[in-house]
Every structure is written in C-alpha cells, then in structure tokens.
C-alpha cells in the first residue's frame, strides 16, 4: 500500500494493481534497457550523467537575507545553477505551506522531500540535478546558514532568513553527516504561526472555557502534552498571546525559540554550555515573573522547580511527551515527583494531535466504512447508522492526496477536587480517565468521532492519528 501511495504521488496518476507473470515483467524491463545492460547498470549510468543546468524559474521577489561574503559563494562549482536550485527548493516549499524540507543523499540517487500536513512526499523534479551537484548544494546551504563549509565530520545547526514576496520566513537548518554524504533538514518557521488565537485552534466550546479559566489564573501548572509534531508549540504561543498584558512579566525558556512574541522575554536554552531548562527556571524566579513558560519538563529537577513555582504565585506553562492527558499525571509520578506536589500544583492538562482534513473539493462517501466498522471503533449504534463517512478521492487542489490542511484534536483534563483526591491515592491512568469522564471529560477519540460525522475527518486518518491513544 505504501508503494502504491508513493507511485501515485510521483506519477500524479491513479494506480491500478494487476497480476502479471514474472517473465512478462522481465521482458518489459528488458525492452526499456539497452542490450546487455542490467537494471543496476542503467541506474548507475543515469546517475553518472552530470546535470549542469537547472530548468526552473525563480521568482525575482525571492532572496536569502544576510548571506556570507561573496568569496565563499565563488568557491561553489556550477555556482549560478546551484544558487538557483537551492533557492527554488526553499521557495517552492514555502509557497506550498511545507513544514520541513529534507535533502537526502544515497549511493545511486538523491532526493528532496517535503513534509506537508505531517506527511513526507518526494519531489521528483529536483532529484537529477541534486544528485549531480550534491556536494555543491550542501556547501550552498552551509553558506546560507553561516556554517563551516570545511566541517564534514560533525553535525551543524544554523538558521537562514529567507524573504519571499516581501515576507521574511526563517529556516532552522540542521546538517548531519551520514555514510553517504551530509544530510540536510530545514524546518520552515512561518512567523504568522506565532500569531494564532485560541479561537483559530477550534476547541470545543466547553473545553475552551475550562482552558481559559486555567490560563487566566494567578498560579498553577498548565501542561500541554502530545507527540512531536502535534502542534504543542503553536498552542502554547496562542496561550501566551491570549494572556499577555502590559502589566505582566512573562518569561519563556525554549529550545529553540521558534517565533518572536512581542512583550515576552524569550530565552534560548544552551545545553552545550550547561544552560538547561532547570537552570533557566531557577534564574527566572529571580526575575520577578508572573508567568513562566518552560519548553519541556525533561527531568525531575525541572519538574520539581516548576511545580514549586506554580505553588508560590506563578503561572507555569510547559509540555510533556505522553499519549493522552491522564497519563501525564502518571508520568510525573514515575519521575519521582511527590503526589501531594502534583495534586496541589497542577490545574489543567491539555493533550492534542494534528490530523489531516479531508479535502472538501473531492470528498466522496467512503463505501469501505460500514456501520459495523464504526461500531468496532466506539461509535454508538445510533451514530453508526446515521453516519455519512467521507474520503478524499484526490484532485489538483489537494495534489491527489485526498487531504488539504490540518486540524487539532484535543482533550482537556480539568484537575478538579475529585481528580486531585484520586492523584493523592495513586489512582492509575485508566482510573483517572474514568473519574474525569464522570465529570464531563471528553477524550480525543470522542472529538475525533464527532469530526468523522461532520465529514472533516477521514476514518483512516482517525485510525492513524489516534491509534496510540
């Protein structure tokens, strides 16, 4: 199935599966290859053909800001074409709304992949030029990111400010040496993402009301939890945007600082010099803050300092990596944090995922999802009988993926008096969940099922995103 999806993405055509004899397949391959040439030899020959030019029109409103001196650029072989190629890779990604750019070397081929709506897809049209000029492309990105072009043994991190259509977009650059060559990954940091309000995150009305009550309090710990890439940073920045006021002193410790926030003192964590989250948090307490954001509760020391700060007149926001909201309490307990401290300091836990939205331009009823299938996934008999489940067929708008854009799926655990008492008696994660449900807690699966019924969420995406919940 993954091969079928890859072929569909590369060819931009619907793929039909047919059975064929091995001999017929071999005969067809032989027709394509020259006489006496093996498949491996054909690949090697193709990749030895150096491609010197890159046929792509780069928008004249696109430029890299604050480059290194010209003499470094002149060291590039095939300079102008490599510059044009590198600019095109970034410009196309930004215009497509991509979150990450991967540039990867392999022995017989090299490729560019974009992560769009959480999924990686190869950009075939870049491959041939990239493979022929891979070393020069790596050097070009090092120059753009102000890195050491001579260092090829150690990982390097940098940043690239990129201007496109009058708008500045920052790229977080990571270069990793591999057995083949150096691998490049760039995170696209769209500055507009730091200006999203809580309303734009589409919380359910009651969940938003509970969240707002917690973040507008005078003290306590609010945790945002979920796997990497689930949108935790965006949610935290939206919370800070909501609570920021001229009379409040707000400090953040981040690794890295992704978006600049007006009126907030943002501090970059530097593990290489021993400036970690716990050390930053201790220094924050001497800076007279009302609100503190700690990028991640990584260890017991950071957790203990954060919880004690939350009990002494500070509002503390932070993140954990757990599958759901109730298991965050268990995670804190497993880190050795006393139950009384968790119970007294925690006010709310928000768990979330990001799911791809079904494309509204090409969605159609999904005949494979029957009422029985829905019932097996927790739908009531009444819900399953009236459900109209959709899937994206694929169209030019969604680039034949069947998905367009992403949306958040949330659960908000309010740490009520009953939940606090359960924490003190060491209730398990399932027990905490059951207690919370009796008080109105709605799980991510509940929210996902509602999204399926409205047609926003594809059933397969529901299964993919919430399979760990």
List keywords for this structure.
globular, Rossmann fold, Beta-Lactamase, 469 residues, 19 helices, alpha/beta, seven-stranded antiparallel beta sheet
Give a written overview of the molecule.
The protein has helices at residues 2-11, 22-32, 39-48, 70-74, 79-95, 127-132, 134-144, 205-215, 232-243, 277-284, 300-310, 326-334, 339-345, 371-376, 381-386, 417-424, 429-438, 444-454, 459-466; strands spanning 62-64, 100-105, 110-116, 119-122, 156-164, 167-177, 182-189, 220-225, 250-254, 265-268, 291-294, 315-320, 346-358, 363-365, 390-392, 403-414. With 469 residues, it is of the alpha/beta class. The protein has three domains: 21-50, no CATH class; 51-189, Beta-Lactamase (2-Layer Sandwich), CATH 3.30.450; 194-466, P-loop containing nucleotide triphosphate hydrolases (Rossmann fold, 3-Layer(aba) Sandwich). It has a seven-stranded antiparallel beta sheet with strand order 1-5-6-7-2-3-4. A seven-stranded mixed beta sheet has the order 10-9-11-12-8-13-16, with helices on both faces. β6 (167-177) and β7 form a beta hairpin. α10 runs parallel beside α11 and α13 packs antiparallel against α16. The radius of gyration is 26 Å and the shape is globular. Mean pLDDT is 87; it is low at 68-75.
